[in-house]
Amino acid sequence: MTTITTVKTVERRRPAGRSAARVGRPGIAWAAPAAVFFVLFAIVPLVLVAVLSFMSWNGIGSPQFVGSDNWTKLFDDPVLVKSLWLSVLITVLGVLVQTPLSIVLGAWAAGQQRNRAVLSAIFFVPLLLSATAVSVLWRALLDPNFGVPAQAKWLFGDGNLLGMQSGAIGVLVFVGAWQYVPFHTLIYQGAARAIPKVLYQAAEIDGAGRVRQFFHITLPQLRNTMITSGIIMVVGGLTTFDTVLILTQGGPGTDTTISAYYMYQKAFKGFDFGVGSAVALVLVVVATVISLVMVRLSGYDKMRSAMEGL
Amino acid sequence: MKRRPNYLAGLGSLVWLGLVALPLYVMLSATLQSRSDYTANGPLGIPDNLTLDNYTNVFSSGFGQYFLNTLIVTVAVVAIVLLLVPPLAYAIVRSRGRVTTGVFRLFLLGLAIPAQAVIVPMFYVISQAGLYDNLIGVILPTAAFSLPMCALILTGVMRDITSDLYEAMAMDGAPTWRVFFQLVLPLSKGGLSTITVFSALQAWNGFLFPLVLTQSESTKVITLGLYNFQTQYGINIPGLLAAVVVSMLPILLVYLFARRTLVQGLMGVGGK
Amino acid sequence: MKKRAWFPRAAAAGAALALGLSLSACGSGDSSGGGDGGKIHVLVYGDSANKVEKQIVAEFNKTSKVKAVLDTIPGANYQQKLQTIINTDQAPDVFFNWGGGSIKPFVDAGLLLPLDDFIAKDSGLQSNFLPSVFNAAVVDGKSYGVPMRGTQPVILFNNGNVLKDAGVEPPKTWDELLDVVKTLKDKGVTTPIALGGGDKWPTLMWFEYVYDRVAGPELFEKALGGDKEAWASADSKKALSMLKELVDTGAFGKNFDSVKYTDQGSVTLLAKGKAAFELMGSWEYSQHQTDNPEFAKDGLGYTTFPTIEGGKGDPANVVGNTNNFYSVLKKTKHPEAVADFLKLMYSDKFVKAQLGIGNLPTTTNTEKFLDTSASPEYSKFQFDLVKKAPSFQLSWDQAYPQSAADAMHTAIQQFFNGQLDADGFIKAMQALPTS
Fold this sequence. Notes:
The complex is a heterotrimer. In chain A, 72% of the residues lie in helices and 1% in strands. Chain A has helices at residues 2-12, 18-22, 32-52, 69-75, 78-109, 114-124, 131-142, 148-151, 153-156, 165-193, 197-205, 210-221, 223-238, 242-248, 259-269, 273-298, 303-308, and strands at residues 55-56, 64-65. Chain A is globular, with a radius of gyration of 24 Å. Chain A starts with a helix and ends with a helix. Chain B is an all-alpha fold. Chain B has helices at residues 7-31, 35-41, 53-60, 63-94, 98-111, 115-128, 135-158, 163-171, 176-187, 189-205, 208-213, 222-225, 237-266, and strands at residues 230-231, 234-235. A two-stranded antiparallel ribbon of chain B has the order 1-2. Chain C is of the alpha/beta class. Chain C has 2 domains: 33-151 and 322-393, D-Maltodextrin-Binding Protein, domain 2; 154-320 and 400-430, 3-Layer(aba) Sandwich (D-Maltodextrin-Binding Protein, domain 2). Classes of the chains: A mainly alpha, B mainly alpha, C alpha/beta. The interface between A and B is large, with 122 and 113 residues. Chain B: This is Carbohydrate ABC transporter permease. Chain B: Keywords: Cell membrane, Membrane, Transmembrane, Transmembrane helix, Transport.
């Protein structure tokens, strides 16, 4: 919690101009309905999860308090540590693959040409499919004997993609990108359209080429968008679940058992809700810390005061 | 100003088109074949005997009811999100209170809660509220879990409204609510359409909450209905994919009609 | 530093509220279901076999005053959902399960109604079912389930055309199997045996049969009873070395962990002649009838699992899924209606309906309807197999407690792909919880 407090202190420096105070500012009442609603249906269950993490419960009888047993069990568990690393790895790879793709596609789709509109519509479709459908489709496509690998042996060898760790992780990252790039493309497309045309016109007068324009105008102008989109990708990556369930089931061995799937295994296949809840909490904490760090580093948090301080 | 075509980006987009279109082709061609033809031709084959049987099966398996339920859930979730998030984001961006800062942090925390993690406590909360096997019981948590992302997106947009504009309104002596309705909302149209799409997709494709929180045929949603095409040990792939196509068509149609507004609205999500 | 305090305080308040909620939730098991007087809820695994269950419920409702309501739960998540609701007001009266380990925790928690009273009033509820199947739902000496779908023994399927082309016969012994595999490989069949290793449970079937043939069902019984040494016994090591030998000869090809049964990958290998064998539950037959009708007619063959020379197990033993069962919750308000409902599970109508969708019921009257089944010859083969088997070993992952299933699947996958050696596998199995 210390991080939070420090950030807060930075913000609290009031730019004590009386003119700013005259502008009507919304009070807490504006945030209250959403906050109450959220606390009731998300935070309360989360707190219950925290309570459960100190209990032994198979879902049937009454939960028994067991102190920190679940936690000691967990920290001795090599699979948990491995699962956290795998989660982070898949998330990082996901961001690295999705971000450049989304930016390029978004900047491209922002153009007004008619064919781009048609293509954008097709690009959008994967977003509409449920994760289950996406996974079933890709399973069929990646079958080593009847799918793409059988047609492109020069690329896939014997097609044992899901039978080895690197292949299985690659597939998860790729399928994740396939599914979510459209959403991020959409965000970047909107943002790219909002970049003032004059900037490009000025650059063109200066004789800057397209590549230079992209790196000197488009990218810097998309900075804020990258943060929003990045946070969404990180959170999405850390909570990847359905694709693992259907494509790899955590295998081969435990080589793609990422934390979200491990938690599901513990809680719902092993019916050890105590340990499952503890894994869930670890995941929430890790994801929250990463999002906070991103928000902090990027200055997303401070932007407001910066802007208002003027 | 006329610009020359961008070959590089064009080529990239064509490659991506291939990657997107191939699975979609597999999906469509599978749904137009009988199970035995699909197995004989393989996923990449060219269908020879086209049939619409898979689609008629979908409609005869109770999909109408599932459809209606999914629609109710989606509309309600979007309504709740649109009702709660704009004032929230407005307060986060404009309020000086310490409490609202705390609220923002709370929502950041919420971003990372996997629905899997809270499903058991959620079951108790909902059944204690007497909402088990009731669509309302699905709507409330689905909406709650869409809030953090929507709040993040919308605050990003509202942040870009400059203080000059607020001050101009203040000169006119506008009260807070008028600033909200006449300045903030119109300038956040982009964010509003993004969160509409986002929450609608969440609700439309939601699986876990309906699974655990409903039971009877009358409250089933489409995602649960897909299991009519599976057995304990196998999947009727053409049947399942036909159901998938049917279930995504409405959203695709909405998208195609609303595309122009949507993309224009998307201008400025997190950017300027 | 005042501002720092909000979080702990809020958290404490939240925890108090939450605890209150959870405690009240736990204590509410005895309150009335409210509003469904005169109804019994029947919860089943939701899949395409629901046709028959719907039919039987409709049949029951024709005459009964208490009406049955069928609730289907999407298959893959059935157990998750069941476990969530079983101790709450939302629990059903009657529910689908796999017998054995799948209901043990519910019995231990005192939630299930022993069916002894029902059987005392109508002995048909026991005597009309094959004993080896009925016994799979006996826990601690009491019956808790009535068979309600079809039996699914594991059978070695083959592609007769591939065997003919290679000039070989289906193997009767393990050594013959190794020879046949070698011959097939020499003739260019790269994957003599199709295996959906991506699903993990198809791999387990090989372990179940080889262990049973080598050591008899007793080894597994002992291990399940908590005797960890059983896994380290000489028989266990022998079984493992035989499995290892088979994998190492390339019998399953190189990419079996990327192939799945559930998306038709392995089935298609067999049907298209790229593989000669597949060890699979009896349901594979009807799968081929739908997906590969021509192959089902003139290529698909089936035999029992090969015998193993010097093995202690009876060669007539089978492994697989004995059947699915209906169990009854103690707190049902209409036990008489439930008993009447269960009696339908040995009715002629039920048997015919199950046979109609390719399931093989395990009632004693099944035999006289076998001719009405879609494929009488296959149904007879299967029924004889089950009827004559001295032991019908329930799949390991269902016999063990649910909490063991994942670690078990991981271990068998790792043994087949070489990530674990025999000692590592033995250790992994010894680490599984047994009760």
